[in-house]
TrEMBL record:
One of its GO terms (biological process) is cell surface receptor signaling pathway. Keywords: Disulfide bond, Receptor, Signal. One of its GO terms (cellular component) is external side of plasma membrane. GO terms for molecular function: transmembrane signaling receptor activity. Pfam families: Ig_2, Ig_3. Gene3D superfamilies: Immunoglobulins. The keyword Disulfide bond applies. Residues 9-93, 100-184, 189-276, 383-456 form the Ig-like domain. InterPro entries: Ig-like_dom, Ig-like_dom_sf, Ig-like_fold, Ig_Fc_receptor, Ig_sub, Ig_sub2. This is Fc receptor-like protein 5.
Amino acid sequence: MTVSAKPKPTISVNPQSSIYTGDTITLSCELQETGWEIQWYKNYQQLQPQNNEHANTLNMTVINAEETEYKCRARRRNYRLYYTEFSDPVKVTARAKPKPTISVNPQSSIYTGDTITLSCELQETGWEIQWYKNNQQLQPQNSEQANTLNMTVINAEETEYKCRARRRHYKHYYTEFSDPVKVTARERPQTVLSVSPQNWLTEGDSMTLSCEVTDSSTDWTFSWYTVVPYRDGVTQIKYTDYVMYVELLSDSSRGSGGNYTLSPSALHHTGVYVCRGERGEPDGYILYSNPQPLWITGESPPVSLIISPSRTQHFTRDSLSLSCEDQSNSTGWTVRRYTDSEGVLYCSQWGSVTGSTCNISFLSTSYTGVYWCESESGENSNPVNITVHEGDVILENPVHPVSEGHPLTLHCLYRNTNPSNLRADFYKDGSVIQNQTTGEMIIHKVSTSDEGFYHCKHPERGESPRSWILVRLSGSSPTGADAEPCVNDVTYARLELKRMKKARKIQDCFH
């Protein structure tokens, strides 16, 4: 007879570490014998058999954050009181579910359009972060389950963010939720630049650019810039759908209070201006304004912008030539253009350059804008507002001034047709002033009463854009109200008067 010692099983647990409350652990009791039934003990208390009675594996859900001792032994099948030795115990130490900490940067002075950065900190590894906004889970970004999240603030409201983490490889095991963080956003303030009295002025007039911020605080300081074509060293800013390049004015500091006054104005002040509002602590906010064009005209500019064909309205698909005719010794004259959609551009960015001449071979409505010549030293010509019309009718009016008492001839031009063969009606300020059998109207001696908006119309071909006929005194300096009232689909001609007149306010630009 061979007598053997009682067998002793071996117990193991999986996972062996990083066990948290709510985890499921698997205990295994290995015995190199057959014919035995496994019994399980937790802290010396026998556990009741599960469905797979006396199986050598046991799944346990960890309830408490504590140390628990497990061991096993086996009973000889069909021998009620015959057992193996107890296994050596295995100790399972469980920790409470971790709770992440959430933070936001910046913490205050948040405006719509700002980007905030949320951070979810967890002093553990092996977890994947999940983000919640107003209790709704956010979809993972490219850096899936990263512990930082960048969010663009859309609405001016209070938004609550929180985070938790899911145990990697455990589909339904999560940390606690972090405490929430609340982000309160306000409408983004805007810097609004305006000009008084008008943005079309005569040399010698006074004008003031005013910069205001749509914000209740008063601790803003302002600086002043002009919009320039791109070159090294200029500042790039984004405005609506395009990028502008701006250069700080040499005397910008005198407008730090929000007003920048030119008195008297000069031809070289022609250009497009931008102001910058800046606020220091606590948020260090910087805002750039809308671009504000300022157009100055003079009686003796150092250069003239020559337009060929010589008119301010042109058909789409036609060609156009603009050249700078020098009256001084300045060098490096270039044609510049300003449009609301693209800002200030050199000719080389929208046409072809030959010397000081700019050629456009195929016009489109996007060429509608204000054109002028500028030298390397900053001297300017008088600006000219050019309209490119997609319809079949345009009005031909003078580009340069006409003196009082001189004749003014307006032509109604038709696309691809001799104007003498078609009839046109001419309008002033919306009312018919002349029915013609030809496309021509002549004012034999212009006077102040001829000032207004003019356009022509053909009953079948359609009507032209309007042109502003400005009547001003020869050798005088009219107020801004008498200067060019606006820039849109309106072009203008100036009539020189040899007698004084009182400035009259233009009430309506577009109606």
